[in-house]
């Protein structure tokens, strides 16, 4: 925690920055969602917390927690989170390329009248279950300008970056290649003729047959949500015909995912299309396409497991820091087993920790 500089006037400081951050992290793990609940946690478990922090002036109030968390730089807190992840990372030298998913989420309750709520673009490592970084959008900007700034802040060399259609921009593709990474970028109607051309190409049955013959095809099937989901992936490097190819730095292939959903005798098909800087290698391409769901899952957990959209913290800095703390907590909970409870959802894990924090926090923090 000493890694974070305390910008407060030290003569007036009653609670150290380390005290504040530990309380907020521990309380978040123990099912506290707002500043009042965090302060109540600190008050009830102050004897336990003194194993980790000073609390020389007793537990702080909820106003103090909120105020101090509004003074910490989110960039520095993200770096602290990253250092913690580095200590836990045991996958150095792993040959498998990591999928780095980039997407944005709006913090719906974080707004004053006449202002927009904070919108945070995150980079999420699918394999590590860890946020590599985030960028809060400026009031008048959008994801297209925020994504390159985020890419400049994180290490992506040798990895695969996935972005939804909003971020499928030539400048973003160029940025990814400049940083010596690969990309798999989603296409939708906002890409105009590029989307239509790729869609029409994969609509040719003879083309799909040839792709299968060359081995650039993969099929998976699973049961989920009371239905059978069949996913078929097609990838081809035969894109000399693609007029827009010259506009996309490093473009090597195009990909289609065909998803067939069967439920109660009804069949529905969905198709998604992508451009990629990777050559034919259907295993990696399909892993990247399928892997992008992990950041959507992370955003779902922020809302459902941590009730982020119900939190009414107005201060932008404090709200961004809470967003980081929630991602940090999610990373911890993903790998933690709570005593004898083997198959619990993230939300249920938080609930169980909240029942007996002294017992279960030790387990999850030392997992």
Can you give a write-up of this model?
The chain is of the alpha+beta class. The chain has a domain at 10-76 and 312-365. Helices cover 41% and strands 20% of the residues. The protein has a nine-stranded mixed β-sheet with strand order 3-2-1-4-5-9-8-7-6, with helices on both faces. Helix 1 (17-29) packs across helix 12 (316-335), helix 2 (35-44) crosses helix 4 and helix 6 packs parallel to helix 7. It is elongated, with a radius of gyration of 23 Å. It starts with 16 loop residues before the first helix and ends with a helix.
Question: What summary fits the major beta sheet?
Answer: 9 strands, mixed
Mean pLDDT: 90
Which word captures the global form?
A: elongated
User: What is the percentage of strand-forming residues?
Assistant: 15-25%
Please give the alpha-carbon distance between the first and last residues. Answer: 20 Å
Number of strands: 9
- N-to-C SSE series? HHHHHEEEHEHEHHEEEEHHHHH
H/I helix tally = 14
Oligomer: single chain
Low-confidence spans: pLDDT under 50, at least 5 residues?
A: none
